[in-house]
């Protein structure tokens, strides 16, 4: 099997071609800089300055020309397209997104990737992820991605690797760049940007300022066939779906005579379904209903790609106080206004929908109640005479769509000193960083359950300043006055504050027979604090959205490290490092790393690393307020035969207990006693630069990363199963039931227990050459994933909704330049994927389900022309040249299992030719 996989990798490499541009290699940079002056530089992944740009750690470098050739105006989008990247949040996440764009490396999660700017930490979220769009693209000189563990060098979060964003230096003059583009066929998804950069340098100092504006317009899910259909558990538009398990026989007969139905899958002439004993109350796979009949199709009213506007400013300066001391500073600020739009709020009231929802009764004296009986939402009233419990669902379309608007501001200021120690090789730096992120979120279209309870109550009328609510008249029965009475707008606020103090020393320690030992030592103190303050109605649980408590907390982290570069023999260098950490929340820990470099000949570098890594629990992990969730779960104590099974954990549950709704209320809780996640990573690689072919290089690197004690939820299903079987009686302590046996709360806590293991091979080759027809660069970057396990479950080659784990991903690019002209072509490849729903259920059991998601090639091209007389560069490009569309998860396009019926992290969300024009002029 391994031979087959290697054979496939070789065939893919040949299909892609020879190889350079999407990634400009470090060795190519060195060749262009020339060998006249040998200068020591600091390469990301090490604190020790060196003359060789190739290190023990595999490093991917994207320079300004790569960023320009990509046609993107988002650094996050560019990084998400590299083959080693995994699934991460971006602006195509409408339901569950917040306008941010993260990066994942090796499918280990964005929280396990450290993001630096100029070698120093950037401001993160409460969950330790970084929104890469807070860093304006116009201020970036290059990006270096270290693809192995680096916690011993940089500290927490560097489990999968490090992204170091280097800003522009020594800029003189004025540069203005404008960009505009849109989808050619659909005339949507428009993007605009404008950047102004001003700078000056002198013998003593320098100053640069950049201001940037970006506008990204929305794409509607309904405007693409693949995403135009969705599935809903609520009935179509204004119809109420009613579930009742104890309705009287006389009322049942009366309702049936009026045209109501007891068949959840059937259509209701009267406007809602009556479902005895809760059967079929949740639409799941295998029970999808006719979309053109009674199921609400929410998809057309959702965004496929969300809009946002970003305004940024970056200022950096340096000044030489003396020949040996320089003061440095920078300031960066980004404001983002972003929006997500979802279909109208589903109203869920009655039993099984949480404490607030279960308080809602439909009183018999309400003027719109057609039953003549009071329907009680609280199942605890089962002993009351004439008790009729119910659960009701209805799309509140008269209130309009739910809109989530974020106003997010991130800023970060750094001031520091850099210097050298006399005539020695030793250099030092000290810095202070202050960063802050704050976000206000306005949400419209939410429902006030207290008001709804009043509007459905006994004495709701003008005299009580109450507007009765009509849920039973079908679409349009809810008037604007009713909407105004029961809806509200929510405002929540959250933020994080960062303070970071560092001091570093680096230089030559002493000399050995094979050369000089390099050393770097340093200290760092990091303080973070954060908060999340939901709307009062959200905190009290009176909102139709999930209840959420406030968050508040912080931590202090003190660290010290030492790194060495030891020449053991000629051509052989060993680089050990160790870091000691003391965290205010959990105590102390240490991490180590060893890198090995060996050059048997000048053309070949053999390299390898072994590294320990860690991720400290985030503020959200430690201190997040309790938050509701309603996943679909099967209660093991449920009995469809009318008798509770003889399970130890079901003692006290009444005979005849039947689960009223498969959506069980759980409470996600934080855990202040968490320990850090730990990892062990290994890389082995070869770098080959044949001296007999100038401009050609090959690199191949194997990686293996194991993460233990990863932080994750214990699991709601696990708690239910362990309690019911008696396998873990302590699990019952986290479950609350009412007198009828219904689960009314389940506390799903965080713990250190998960394990990840990722293993694979990265291959990169590049060739740069000149001909009489111009200069060419070609590159091939290919990622082969051998293992992608979580808790022993290998996910390689499987698509899970919005996340896919392809076995192979790659990019191949060709760049050409001649005189004032240049052109670029890049193709990206995603290997075919097996549909996870086929793995779980079998496509043969569900007609229309795609058992396999087809392989995916997408081509991007651009041409440029330099008007030297005007210092102007024009570029015209097309992304997705052949308007390639992803394969749908459901081939008949009738049922969308994931949000959009395809993964928005692996495939082009435009599904169209995106045409753009960029103009840059320098004065």
Automatic annotation (TrEMBL):
Region of interest called Disordered, as start-end residue ranges on this chain: 528-552
Gene3D superfamilies listed in its UniProt record: TonB-dependent receptor, beta-barrel domain, TonB-dependent receptor, plug domain
Domain TonB-dependent receptor-like beta-barrel positions: 374-881
Sequence ranges assigned to domain TonB-dependent receptor plug in this UniProt record: 54-162
Entry keywords, A to Z: Cell outer membrane, Membrane, Receptor, Signal, TonB box, Transmembrane, Transmembrane beta strand, Transport
Subcellular compartments: Cell outer membrane
Topological relation to the membrane, as annotated: Multi-pass membrane protein
Transmembrane segments: none
Gene Ontology terms: cellular component: cell outer membrane
Biased composition range(s): Polar residues: 536-549
First and last residue of the signal peptide: 1-30
Family under the similarity heading: Belongs to the TonB-dependent receptor family.
Name used for this protein in its record: TonB-dependent receptor
Species this chain originates from: Pseudoalteromonas porphyrae
């Amino acid at each position: 099997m391994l031979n087959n996989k290697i054979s496939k990798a070789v065939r893919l490499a040949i299909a892609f071609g020879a190889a350079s541009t999407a990634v400009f290699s470090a060795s190519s940079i060195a060749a262009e800089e020339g060998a006249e002056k040998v200068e020591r530089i600091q390469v990301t992944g090490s604190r020790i300055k060196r003359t060789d740009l190739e290190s023990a750690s595999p490093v991917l470098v994207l320079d300004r020309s790569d960023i320009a050739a990509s046609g993107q105006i988002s650094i996050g989008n560019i990084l998400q397209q590299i083959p080693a990247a995994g699934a991460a949040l971006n602006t195509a996440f409408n339901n569950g997104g917040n306008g941010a764009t993260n990066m994942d490396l090796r499918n280990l999660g964005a929280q396990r990737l450290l993001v630096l700017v100029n070698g120093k930490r950037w401001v993160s979220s409460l969950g330790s992820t970084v929104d890469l769009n807070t860093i304006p693209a116009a201020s970036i000189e290059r990006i270096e991605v270290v693809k192995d563990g680096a916690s011993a060098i940089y500290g927490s979060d560097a489990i999968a690797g490090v992204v170091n964003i280097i800003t522009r230096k020594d800029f003189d003059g004025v540069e203005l760049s404008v960009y505009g583009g849109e989808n050619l066929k659909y005339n949507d998804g428009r993007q605009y940007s404008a950047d102004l950069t001003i700078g000056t340098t002198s013998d003593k100092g320098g100053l640069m300022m950049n201001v940037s504006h970006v506008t990204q317009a929305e794409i509607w899910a309904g405007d693409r066939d693949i995403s135009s259909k969705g599935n809903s558990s609520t009935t179509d538009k204004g119809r109420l779906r009613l579930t009742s398990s104890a309705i009287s026989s006389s009322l049942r007969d009366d309702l049936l005579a009026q045209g109501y139905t007891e068949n959840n899958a059937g259509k209701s002439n009267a406007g809602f379904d009556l479902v005895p004993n809760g059967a079929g109350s949740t639409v799941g796979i295998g029970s999808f209903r006719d979309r053109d009949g009674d199921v609400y199709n929410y998809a057309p009213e959702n965004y496929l790609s969300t809009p946002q506007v970003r305004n940024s400013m970056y200022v950096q300066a340096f000044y030489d106080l003396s020949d040996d001391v320089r003061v440095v500073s920078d300031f960066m600020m980004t404001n983002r206004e972003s929006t997500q739009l979802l279909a109208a709020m589903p109203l869920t009231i009655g039993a099984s929908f949480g404490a607030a929802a279960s308080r809602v009764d439909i009183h018999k004296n309400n003027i719109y109640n057609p039953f003549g009986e009071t329907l009680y939402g609280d199942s605890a009233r089962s002993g009351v005479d004439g008790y009729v419990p119910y659960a009701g669902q209805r799309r509140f379309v008269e209130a309009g769509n739910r809109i989530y608007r974020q106003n997010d501001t991130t800023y970060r200021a750094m001031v520091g000193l850099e210097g050298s120690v006399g005539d020695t090789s030793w250099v030092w730096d000290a810095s202070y960083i202050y960063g802050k992120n704050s976000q206000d979120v306005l949400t419209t279209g939410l429902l006030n359950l207290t008001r709804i309870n009043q509007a459905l109550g006994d004495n709701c009328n003008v005299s009580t300043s109450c507007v009765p609510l009509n849920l039973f008249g079908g679409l349009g029965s809810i008037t604007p006055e009713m909407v105004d009475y029961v809806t509200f707008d929510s405002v929540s606020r959250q933020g994080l504050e960062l303070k970071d103090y560092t001091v570093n020393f680096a230089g030559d320690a002493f000399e050995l027979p094979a050369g000089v030992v390099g050393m770097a030592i340093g200290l760092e103190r990091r303080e973070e604090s954060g908060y999340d303050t939901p709307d009062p109605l959200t905190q009290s649980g009176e909102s139709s959205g999930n209840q959420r408590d406030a968050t508040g907390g912080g931590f202090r982290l003190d660290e010290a490290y030492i790194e060495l570069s030891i020449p053991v023999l000629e051509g052989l260098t060993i680089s050990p490092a160790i870091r000691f950490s003391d965290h205010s929340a959990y105590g102390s820990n240490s991490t180590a790393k060893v890198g090995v470099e060996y050059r048997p000949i000048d053309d070949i570098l053999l390299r390898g690393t072994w590294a320990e890594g860690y991720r400290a629990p985030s503020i959200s992990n430690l201190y997040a307020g309790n938050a509701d969730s309603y996943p679909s779960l099967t209660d093991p104590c449920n009995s469809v035969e009318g008798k509770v099974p003889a399970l130890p954990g079901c003692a006290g549950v009444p005979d005849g207990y039947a689960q009223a709704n498969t959506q069980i209320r759980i409470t996600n809780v934080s855990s202040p006693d968490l320990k850090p996640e730990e990892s062990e990573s290994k890389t082995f690689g070869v770098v080959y630069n044949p001296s007999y072919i100038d401009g050609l290089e090959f690199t191949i690197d194997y990686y293996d990363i194991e993460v233990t004690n990863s932080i994750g939820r214990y699991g709601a299903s696990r708690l239910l199963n362990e309690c019911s079987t008696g396998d873990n009686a302590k699990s019952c302590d986290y479950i609350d039931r009412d007198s009828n046996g219904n689960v009314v709360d389940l506390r799903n806590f965080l713990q250190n227990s998960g394990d990840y293991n990722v293993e694979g091979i990265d291959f990169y080759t590049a060739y740069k050459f000149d001909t009489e027809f111009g200069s060419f660069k070609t590159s091939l970057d290919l990622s082969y994933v051998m293992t992608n396990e979580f808790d022993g479950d290998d996910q390689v080659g499987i698509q899970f909704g919005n996340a896919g784990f392809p076995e192979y991903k790659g990019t191949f690019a060709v760049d050409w330049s001649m005189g004032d002209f240049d052109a670029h072509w890049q193709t990206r490849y995603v290997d075919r994927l097996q549909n996870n729903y086929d793995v779980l259920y079998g496509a043969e059991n569900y007609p229309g389900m795609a058992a396999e998601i087809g392989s995916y090639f997408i081509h991007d091209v651009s041409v440029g022309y330099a008007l030297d007389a005007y210092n102007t560069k024009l570029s015209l490009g097309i992304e997705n040249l052949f308007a390639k569309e992803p394969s749908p998860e459901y081939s008949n396009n009738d049922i969308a299992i994931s949000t959009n019926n395809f993964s928005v992290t692996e495939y082009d969300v435009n599904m169209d030719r995106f045409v753009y024009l960029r103009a840059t002029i320098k004065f």
